[in-house]
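Duplicate of earlier report; RND family efflux transporter MFP subunit input re-posted below.
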Amino acid sequence: MKSKTSMLAGFIAAMMLSVVGSKTAYAQQQITVQKQTITDTVSLEGRVEAINQSTVSAQTSGTIIELPVDVDDPVAADQLIIRLDDTEQRARLNRATANMESAQSTLDDAERRYRRIQELYQQNVASESERDDAQTQLETAKARLAETKAALEEAQKQLSYTQVRAPYAGIVTERFVELGESVQPGQPLMSGLSLEHLRVVTELPQQYAQYVRNQRDAEIVTDDGRELSIGSMIFYPYADAQSHTFRLRLNLTDPEGGLFPGTLVKVNVSVGERDALLVPSAAVLVRGELRAVYVVTDGKPQLRQVKVGQAHDDQVEILAGLVTGENILASAEAMLDE
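Output:
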């Protein structure tokens, strides 16, 4: 059995014989191999998460009498998601309203009495102590009205808390209560998240942290090849104690449909620059594990095996087999089509 090396050598020899006297070889464009500056990237696994995700808790006590949405239901911003029995809150509001109206009436009387006493005092009919007493009653009535207004506002707020509404448009992810259940302030009711504002979180190895922090060059690619637009890049100012990685958070400017929290995407991050030999991908002949180019020496093309690295758009990096200044043919396949 022939070794893989001898098979490759035989293939190259056959290809070299096939191009002797080829008109295509002389008509083809030749390229001088030069070093170019390229950017190295690493591909990281990123996780999509919702920017807006929260748990709504009760802000007043009461019994749940309406539960119009459930887990996985979509909700609009400010949509009713839970209603509590508001009997107690309405009674409190009625009392607060009556107290404020009474305080307003008391203040009106105190103002009229003070004006009357003040006029009499200026006519030397009323004493200074009577005027002071009227003024004290007026200030007390003002303070009482302010107190009842604050109580009324609190009662109105407590009544509004009996209608629990969605803080933003999104999806209900968890429900912690049942219809007919009594709840207390601070008790979790529902959790949800928004699909309108998403971000991607990934873990960046320590050796790349400083370069990425300075350059801020990254791209996000989905499984089906779509590139997502990045609005901002946020670095956590500390490394994980166990993995020694830095968390990188990428906010998406316009999340597309089909992208959901919890899904995985690829995050390609630029981690450095270096000089490398690049040639057009079309100049490289690919046959199984063989990679070769046609090197022009003394006007004649000769097939030479090369070792290739990463592809960069329509070019490929040459790791071994070529040196700067050598000339190669622009299309390897064209030689075989002759």
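The two ends are 32 Å apart (CA to CA).

Merging into the original ticket.
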